[in-house]
Amino acid sequence: MKADFTPDSVSKPRFYVLTIEADGMTKRLIKIEQGRQGDVYALTNYGNFLNNTATPFEPSRARITQQKYTIHRSLKSPERINTIKHEFLIEGHDLRPPIQATKAIKQTNSIALLFSAMHPSLIKEKYNYAGEGGNSISLGKMDNSNFKLFYAVAVSGADRPLADLPRWINRKTVRLNHFSLHFFWAFGLGPASDYGEKWHFMTLPPEIIPSDLQELMDVQEGLDENRLASLLRESWTAMLEKFARTASELIPDTRDIHNLITAFGLIRTGTRGTPEYISRLRKAIEQIR
């Protein structure tokens, strides 16, 4: 699979759309825009309700109306730190957007992870992509009824190449005027479900950060490829485990569904019948017997 996405024209388009084909329909995951001053805006899909114990809202009542990331060039920063702002709008509330302050782009020539996520079922029409402008960056195909999509977005300096990652992690890169955006994804086994999850990365004053969260909430030095791969595995595996528990509640009469999902793990392909799928399924079934 080709790792890098390169526009045909020399000048970079202002709009890109990250898509995937799910059950024959093209679905939109993220819309990306380059601002005139070089900042980058990423408008992502979001669930209907916020499910986060770190906020003061009851999950069943905190309706999300928009979620966006802004990668700032931060040209006036004396510390040569870039700010990444995460904005999510909650119906009826005005929230101060959390930020991630990172040295990755200007100082350490490394990678800053915006978020890591497990997408809800893509069956809903609100995710449909009708070719509404922009260059499409496709993640290929998936069987939405039998697989969950795990994906992540990271940013680096425009000229930083991405070294090899473990083979089970798919990747694509789009080079913008001042940044490169990196997309990573894999698939897990499971029935269609509205359950989804995102891990966000933010910066807080050092004195209020719990010691076990220091790495995730302090000024980010940036990640190399080894640490990036570890974070993707850690976050996606945790999400997969939570989803497996949810799936066992959705299908109570199915024996060992939780164990099957976790034993199957994460793979590159999101369709049944591939050699990778068949091999992994056999091993998972043998493991839970």
Tell me what the structure shows.
The protein is of the alpha+beta class and 289 residues long. The protein has one domain. The chain contains 4 helices and 14 strands. It has helices at residues 214-217, 225-250, 257-264, 275-288; strands at 4-5, 15-22, 25-34, 40-44, 64-71, 82-90, 99-102, 112-118, 135-142, 147-157, 170-175, 179-189, 197-200, 266-267. Strands 1, 8, 10, 11, 12, 13 and 14 form a 7-stranded mixed beta sheet that branches. A 7-stranded mixed beta sheet has the order 7-6-5-4-3-2-9, with no helix packed on it. Strand 3 (25-34) and strand 4 form a beta hairpin. Helix 3 packs across helix 4 (275-288).
Low-confidence sequence ranges: 1-11, 53-60, 206-210, 213-217
Radius of gyration: 19 Å
Q: Estimate nothing, just give the exact number of structural domains.
A: 1
Helix content: 10-25%
Distance between the first and last residues' Cα? 35 Å
- Number of helices, where a helix is a run of at least 4 consecutive DSSP H or I residues: 4
Quantity of strands, as a count: 14
Beta-sheet strand percentage? 25-35%
H-E string: EEEEEEEEEEEEEHHHEH
Largest sheet: 7 strands, mixed
Derived structural class:
alpha+beta
Shape: globular
Query: Average pLDDT across residues?
Result: 82
